[in-house]
Amino acid sequence: MAKPSSSGSRTRSFVQIFIVVGLCCFFYILGAWQRTGFGKGDLLQLEVTKKGAGCDIVPNLSFDSHHGGEVGKIDEVDSKPKVFKPCKARYIDYTPCHDQRRAMTFSRQNMIYRERHCPREEEKLHCLIPAPKGYVTPFPWPKSRDYVPYANAPYKSLTVEKAIQNWIQYEGNVFRFPGGGTQFPQGADKYIDQIASVIPIENGTVRTALDTGCGVASWGAYLWSRNVIAMSFAPRDSHEAQVQFALERGVPAVIGVLGTIKLPYPSGAFDMAHCSRCLIPWGSNDGIYLMEVDRVLRPGGYWVLSGPPIHWKANYKAWQRPKEDLEEEQRKIEDVAKLLCWEKKSEKNEIAVWQKTVDSETCRRRQEDSGVKFCESTDANDVWYKKMEACVTPNRKVHGDLKPFPQRLYAVPPKIASGSVPGVSAETYQDDNKRWKKHVNAYKKINKLLGSGRYRNIMDMNAGLGSFAAAIQSPKLWVMNVVPTIAEKHTLGAIYQRGLIGIYHDWCEAFSTYPRTYDLIHSNGLFSLYKDKCNIENILMEMDRILRPEGAVIFRDEVDILIKVKKIVGGMRWDTKLVDHEDGPLVPEKILIAVKQYWVADTNTTSTQ
C-alpha cells in the first residue's frame, strides 16, 4: 500500500478542522433559532451568535464526512430516501404500547388493561407523529418545574379534578404547578421535610428513588434540589397526561403500573420507594406488590407510605371508608413488611416509613422458619414481561460499601467489584469511564448546546455501564439509561449503584412514554446490536416519536450502518451531518449528528393513518 503524502495528510487535517468549525456554527445557529418557552425566535441573538461563532469564515462549507470519499459514493448510489408522511392530528399523543382503545379490550383485573400491550406488526403506524399546533420548546430548568406551556399538553381535566389538592393550575397560556399533591396540599417541600426527619436524604446516602403512582411527579420534582433523582411512573388512565406533564416539567417518568408484570428495574436498585395515596392495594394478593417493591429496594433502603390506611383512626370519616376495612388493610401491610424483615422506623400523622434490613443472613433464617416461599428464578433481573409471583427474592450479600452521592458516580460499583457483572472488572470499568469522557468532550466540540441547559431530558438507548451519563452529569439534566433486553451484559444494577437511573427495554417495541418527551437521544452501537433483530425503520420512527421538535440525536456506530440510518431519517424531516471519529478518519466507527425539524400537526393532512 502506498504511503499517503504529507500534503494529503495536511489537507485531510485542514478539512477535519473545517468540519468541526462548521458544525459548531450549525449548532450555534440552531440554538438561537430554537423556540423559547414563549415560542419566539430571537433574530438579534441569531446575528450575535453568528458573529461570535465565526460562521462567516466558512459560509459554503460542506458538512459531509471526509474519509476517502467513501460515504458520498455509497450515499449517492441508491435512490432518493423514502418520504414519511405525517400522521393525522388525532395521533399527537399516541402511545403505541399504551393505546387507550387497545387497553379496553383487556381484563381490568389486577390492572392488566393498563400494562404494556403493543401493536402487532401489521397494526403499527408508519407515519410521523405530529406536534400539536402552537407547540414550543419547554422552559429551561428550574422554571420548567413550575410552568408548562399549555400548547404542549392542552389538557385541563386535572385542573378541575385536582383543584383543591394544588396539583396544577391553568394560567393564561401556561400550566402552573404549585408543588401540591393529594397528600401534600401545602407543598412538596414541607412534605419532603417530614420524610427527611426520618430518612437521611441530605447526606447523599439516599440518591435514587422510585415513585409509584406519581401523579404529575411533584415529589420527584422537588427532590431534585436535594440531589435525589426519582424514577416516577403512573398509568395512562383517566388522569389524562399526568406522565406527560411530568416529562414536560423535566422530571424523569414513564408510563407504567404495578399490575401483574414485574417492574422493568433490576433488583436492589433503589435507595427509597414511595407511595403517596397511589391507590395500590398493598395488602392484597398475598402481599405480591410489596414483595416486588422489596425486590427493587437495596438492602438498607426505605419505603414511604402516606395516605390510607395510615392514621386511619383519625381519618376514616374523611376518607368515607369503614374503619374496620382500613384497620384490616393496615394489618395486612404490617404483616407483609414483617415477613420481608422491614423495620418500621416511624409513623407520624399520615406518613409511615419502613427500612429494609441489611442483615440478609438473619432475615433468611427467620423467613425459612416462617415457611416463606422464595422465588425460584436464578436471575432476579430477568424481568421483561415476566409475571410477578407472591414470593420473596433472596437478598444477595452486599460486597463493598455503596458510597454517598456524588462519590458513588465514579466509585467502582459493588456489583462490579464483586464480579457480579461477567466480563467487567474494576479496570475495564475505569477504562470505560475514560473513554466516555473523551467521547463527550468530542460531542461538546461538535454541539455547543450540550451541557448548556438546552437539553434537559436525555436518553441513552444502549447505556452500557452508564459512563455517557456520568460524563455529562449536571444539575441541568438527567439521563434515562436504557439497557436493551438483548444486551450481552446486564449492567443496569451497576448503573443504579452509580447514583444514576435507567430501565430495561426491547427496542423492537415502543418505549413507555408520550411523544416529544426527550430533548436529546444518544444511540451508541444500538443499530449494530439490533441488526437482523427487527426493522431499523421502526426503531427510527420510535426515536422520532419520542424526540421533541428541534431535539438532537447523536448516533455512534459503524459507518455502513450510519449510512443506512442517514438515508432513512432523510425522509423523516431530520437534518443530519456525518462526521469522523475523534481519533480520525481511519477509525471505522463514525458519528452521525441529527436534528429534528420543527413542524406541527396539519388538520388537512392527506396521510392515510
UniProtKB/TrEMBL annotation:
Recorded GO CC terms: cytoplasm; Golgi membrane
MF term (GO), any: methyltransferase activity
Cell compartment(s), UniProt: Endomembrane system; Golgi apparatus membrane; Membrane
Name of the top EC class for this enzyme: transferase
Protein topology in the membrane: Single-pass type II membrane protein; Single-pass membrane protein
Record GO biological process: methylation
EC number(s) reported in the record: 2.1.1.-
Principal location listed in the UniProt entry: membrane
Keywords: Glycoprotein, Golgi apparatus, Membrane, Methyltransferase, Signal-anchor, Transferase, Transmembrane, Transmembrane helix
Highest taxon in the source lineage: Eukaryota
Transmembrane segments: 12-33
Family: Belongs to the methyltransferase superfamily.
Name used for this protein in its record: Methyltransferase
Organism in which the protein naturally occurs: Medicago truncatula (Barrel medic)
Gene: 11414978
